[in-house]
Amino acid sequence: MNAHHALEWLPSYLVPFVSLSYPTPPPVNPDSFHHSAYYKTGVLDGCFIITCIAVMAVLRDVVRIFVLEPFARWKLTRAWKRSNSCHVQQNGNKNGITNGNGHAGHANNDSKPKSVMSARESRKIHRSVLRFAEQGWSAIYYTLQWLFGFYVHRNLPTQALKPTELWLNYPHSPLAGPLKLYYLTQTAFYLHQILILNAEARRKDHVQMMTHHVLTIFLMVMSYFCNFTRIGCLIMVLMDWNDIFLPIAKMFRYIGLYTLCDITFTWFLLSWFVARHVLFVIVIKSAWFDGPRLISVGWVPELGYYYSERTYNTFVYLLVALQIIQIVWFWMICRVAWRVISGQGASDDRSDDER
After folding, report:
1. From the centroid of its chain, how far is CA 337?
2. Integer Cα distance of 280 and 286 in angstroms
3. For residues 111 and 93, is the Cβ–Cβ distance under 8 A?
4. How far apart are the C-alpha atoms of 50 and 298, rounded to whole Å?
5. Could you read off the pLDDT of 91-132 as tens digits, one per residue?
């Protein structure tokens, strides 16, 4: 354990919850992160994941309640007041009568401004505020985590268009500190997402989202302990890239910026296709063909070698299953794109409405 990295007053049993466990000397000639601390993997890493889940839960609520919800409520309330004023002005022009001084008088009460929202309008704004805040947290998380993941990826000798580098010099153990931190925080995020999915009102894509998250977590844990972390890092960077834009598009829609919503959604559609159905397929193809060809070592767990036909095939089949889920989602996204082209505006079929 890394008790020597902890504060002196911290009890030893709390150390795994606040710092990375299993420090180890760095490799003799590391091919990445030359000045980083290095770590092995183990079950105590779950303690750090628990802390990350708790921190994410607190941050999510703080950002939603004190930043995103007040902003959305202010924006939507202001838009309602302006819309109400315009409606009053239009009715005044239509129904006004001219008095002796040449000024327009009101013929009915429709021209009087409403000072209080109706219950229906209030519920609509409240729902949009909550949705805006939920998507805002997703946009913030994916942006920050993609930047961190891209930093990690850039320091690894791997490229999306040259995936053979993912398998050379296997196993890639021990792990550099930034790579280990990236993996653990990503795992914590998806576990936190599962908790949120089951705590909030179910939406119409609940089963697909749960399947995706469970499959993703299984792949992350499997690649983490079987030392396939380089392909895992590349895939997570590819996935997080386009996950930034969908919540931003939804945020624009919830506050009434429909043109920006459609533009952002179009960019999301293009980035999704490139990242998940071009680059990700290249990675799967490399895992299917290059991995067995370039990894020559078998099953030697005590030395960090976890390659066997059964475990590796399971890993590849799960990647294929993940791609199948994304193909289904892409078909649903294309339906939304058709609505944008036909002038109906963007709304994501996958998750906007509850059952």
Report:
1. 21
2. 10
3. no
4. 33
5. 655 555 445 455 544 445 555 556 677 888 899 999 999 999
